[in-house]
Amino acid sequence: MMVLPVTYEQMKAVQVTSTAAPEIVEISEADGFFINRTYTQDFRIRKEVYEKIKLAAKKLPAGMFYMFYEAYRPLKRQVQLWDMVTLEMKKQYPDADAAKIAALTETFVANPYDGIGSGHQACCAIDVTLCDKDGKEFGMGTACQEFHPHAVTKHPDISAESVKHRQILLDTLEGAGFANYPAEWWHFSYGDHQWAVLKGKSECPFGPIDI
To answer: pLDDT tens across 3-44, in order?
Structure first.
């Protein structure tokens, strides 16, 4: 069973510092981005985070673009996703007990019931991959948002090409201040509880919001 890269206990210790009303914008194709609407039509994000995304995009190699699968996720959808992945983990690990299933599920989806939630709920996380000018996705070892063991960012059993592409995501987005969630190559956030733990911080500016 995969070890959870960031624990609830670690995130619970992080203090949210911002109390200001968030300024919300939407990720736009007009800014040179590609949007995959397979799973959601909601691509809202905090303006401060979006400015960092645009900064990161300027560092992409010629012919590469960001394609977004998800940004803001309301609590209702977080619960739906938790339930869906729980069922998937039960199928993949039929002999696992309830505690193991919950731990496996939380590797891929933040627990909506723990009082912290996900960076998506804080409107400061993105699920993103790379594509060409025609919107064709580059090979990344798994599909974006595929709940598979090879989704681990530094997985050893993916092709050299996929390693290269994942590194481009890491270099451009982490260079702009984002943190990658190590269990999902596609998930990056700035300013939430998870980001704080991964960056070794005791405080974060953003907590979950309901918009």
So the answer is: 567 888 899 999 999 888 999 999 999 999 999 999 999 999
Task: Look at strands 34-35 and 44-46 and give their pairing.
Answer: unpaired
Question: Which residues 6+ apart lie within 8 Å of 33 measured at CB?
Answer: 27, 53, 57, 65, 66, 67, 68
Q: Report the C-alpha gap between 101 and 186 in whole angstroms.
A: 22
Q: pTM of the predicted model, to two decimals? A: 0.89
Tokens linked to 202: 């005791």
**Nearest alpha-carbon partner for 52 in 108, 121, 128:** 128
Does residue 86 sit in helix, strand or coil?
Answer: helix
Give the length of the chain: 211
For 147-176, the DSSP string reads -SGGGSTT-SSS-HHHHHHHHHHHHHHHTT
